[in-house]
Amino acid sequence: MTQSIVTLSDTHVLYQSPNVMPLIVIDSPKCYAVVSLYGGQILEFKAHNKPPLLWLSPLVIFELGKAIRGGVPICAPWFGPYKGTKRDSISYPNHGFARTSLWQQQSITTNQDDDIQIILTLTPNETSKLTYPVQFSMEICFTLGNELAIDFAVTNHSTRTIECEWALHSYLAIDDITTASVSGLEGYQYIDSANGRTVEILPAQLRFDGEVDRYFIQGSKAQSIDGAFPVSITGTNCDSVITWNPGTELAGKMSDIGSDFYQQFVCVERGAIFNNQWRIESGQQQRATMVLSN
Known about the structure:
Layout: E1 5-10, H1 11-15, E2 22-27, E3 31-36, E4 41-47, E5 74-75, E6 104-110, E7 116-122, H2 126-131, E8 136-144, E9 148-156, E10 162-164, E11 166-168, E12 171-173, E13 181-183, E14 189-192, E15 198-201, E16 206-207, E17 212-216, E18 222-226, E19 231-236, E20 240-245, H3 247-252, E21 265-272, E22 278-280, E23 285-293
Antiparallel strand pairs: 1-2, 2-3, 3-4, 5-11, 6-7, 7-8, 8-9, 9-23, 10-22, 11-21, 12-21, 13-16, 13-18, 14-15, 14-17, 17-20, 18-19, 19-23, 20-21
């Protein structure tokens, strides 16, 4: 059996970016994957003899302070705008600081199924101390085999209960946005963020006609993207589901998507948002797993 090859690379070598950010590249008998330490984020995943599972924008920008457009960014420890009391002298990044922080590599191992496991961690940094002044650690574990499993954990090292709102913002590759649909959320209530934040019930499969930005605070256990490249999304302890595609008008205003590429992905995210957020007692940990496959 061909052995797995793990190499350290960077965004300049792999994506011709003028900015150099560290990457881990996995080429195994089961899959090919690229993981970025910036953002603690998997950028690419392709199981053997299958199409790419994740979408990485052809216009991706690698820049400090900017989230990487594609793969699976980590929105944490808040989702959307910061919801606490703000101070004028502090910048509160949208969707938290996890996706724009440099994570630390802890280990790269092979499990009993010959899957590769990569563990990264994030601890308090200059940004987090200003906006989230508690002692915490976040851990992300990518299990790379015939499917992609992402294990996310937050540990509270402080003396009081902390709150953590989060989502794994998965950009999933599809053939055509006009024919794609999401199954598994029928009958569930959602907030329609693209249309005045009205509260609605999804009557049938979710389709993408224009901008879609829907927050299912309590969603179903499993979803699927139907189309030429079907995708399965399941999760444990991550019952919130967010579905997103910018549509042609908004995409045209986004320099790292553009009106030519929004048709190539659908975001079906799992997490714990709004009143479903984690409340973690002192010395305790919360952990969740999302599994993606095609």
